[in-house]
Amino acid sequence: MTTITKESSIQDIVAECPESVEVFAQYGLGCIGCAMASYETLEQGAAAHGINIDELLKALNEKANSSDGPSNCGCGCG
């Protein structure tokens, strides 16, 4: 089971759970590949884009732990 927190870096989230890109796109966070993603936390990124961190965190954790999420993607991220 993967647990994503407010302190998780955006880059680490995407590296560990590639399916999270779908959630980031749904919330308008298109900066997945930008330089800031390597050291910016999820909370910082959400604040910079005016996104509710609790909603984003819930959606990311649901994706990370869903049946179509990383545990079944074959990449070993879950």
Individual helix count: 4
Beta percentage is under 5%
The description of the largest β-sheet is:
none
Query: Which blocks of ≥5 consecutive residues have pLDDT under 50?
Result: 69-78
Q: C-alpha Rg, in Å? A: 11 Å
At CATH level 3, the topology is SP0561-like
CATH superfamily: SP0561-like
Number of individual domains? 1
* H/E topology pattern: HHHH
- Supply the helix-strand structural class: mainly alpha
Task: Explain the overall architecture.
The chain has 78 residues and is mostly helical. The protein has a single domain, classed as Orthogonal Bundle (SP0561-like). It contains 4 helices and no strands.
